[in-house]
Amino acid sequence: MKALVTGSSGHLGEALVRTLQQRSFDVTGLDRRAGPFTSEVGPIADRACVARSLRGVRTVFHAATLHKPHVATCRREDFVDTNVRGALILLEESIAAGVEAFVFTSTTSVFGDALAPPPGQPAAWIAEDVAPIPKNIYGVTKAAAEDLCQLFHRNEGLACVVLRPSRFFPEEDDNALVRSAYAPDNAKTNEFLFRRVDLEDVVSAHLVAADRAAALGFRKYVISATTPFSRDDLALLRADAPRATLARVPEYAAQYARRGWKMFASVDRVYDNERARRELGWSPRWDFRRLVRQLRDNEEIGSPLARLVGAKGYHGAPFAERPSPIAPAPRR
User: Fold this and answer.
1) What is the mean pLDDT of residues 188-215?
2) What is the model's pLDDT at position 330?
3) How many Å apart are CA 282 and CA 205, to the nearest integer?
4) Cβ(166)–Cβ(271) under 8 Å?
């Protein structure tokens, strides 16, 4: 079977191409940047390039995007051109090419302000029934692309599955307070409790979504590591996350103490992946408990695939004080 992966020189794109090739797929990788897993070089908003890339393709994995770290360095028009116009062109050309399954990589960032309850309130439980409230151009354009997928399913009959992964990038946190208070692996391991997912599990979610797309028609799914918490834990998580974690995963304390690590004082949201596990048959392998076992056994944390792909970065040059700038880019 032939598949197209957009964003194939990026983090998820490379992981998808690697995995599909191992499963004997005929894969075309499309990216604006050349790379070892990219066979077509060009922007996603270039219709001729997209049409050429789709020849013979039956499954599309649309991972190409401008990301949240680009908010500070790219114009809003750039986000619209790549994330919205690019998605529209890809969907139109997918119909023309006879594509049978379209899997769109969205983001939990579409939830925006719904992720931050007022002070003193319990942590938010984030599942598919939570209404998105995007708070920046990244979230707005990803939500718009989700709506385009729904439109093309309804009007054109294209089977579209939208996946909303939580954090899976290996780069340093863009929050200076987190970087100053927690070692990188400490912070990322903490996040597997409520807002992070391993790259291998993101890839497996895409593969099962493609397999189930025809039966599902159109669906959206939160893709995050399986949390040990329930809705009953939300008040304690907001007030005292270490105590809440000790109650659910008591074995973490000894492993953290060995390394001088610490849990976040408070957690403001928990992503719930139950619908993806139930409807897709998705079986994520990497969660907080498994990482704690890796710590116990003195192993590198996370999956071999995540380590193999490594960090990609989002910008062509480093910034003096942080991995990404935080001030919005000027209009021009």
Assistant:
1) 98
2) 37
3) 6
4) yes
Q: How far is CA 331 from CA 71, 78, 328, in A?
A: 11, 11, 9
Q: How far apart are the C-alpha atoms of 158 and 148, rounded to whole Å? A: 11
Contact 3, 209 (CB under 8 A): no
| pLDDT of res. 176 | 86
Integer Cα distance of 27 and 219 in angstroms: 24
User: Cα–Cα distance between 11 and 20 in angstroms, integer?
Assistant: 15
Report the 10 Å Cβ neighbour count for 77: 12
174 compared with 30, residue with greater pLDDT:
30
Which residue in 154, 190, 156, 160 sits closest to 175, CA to CA? 190
Stated pTM of the model:
0.93
Instruction: Label each residue of 55-115 as H, E or C.
Output: CCCCEEEECCCCCHHHHHCCCHHHHHHHHHHHHHHHHHHHHHHCCCEEEEECCHHHHEHHH
Is a pLDDT exceeding 60 seen at residue 293?
yes
Q: Which amino acid is at 322?
A: R
Cβ contact 285:225 at 8 Å: no
Tell me the sheet residues that pair with 4: 28, 60
In this predicted model, what pLDDT tens digit does every residue of 106-119 receive, in sequence order? 999 999 999 989 99
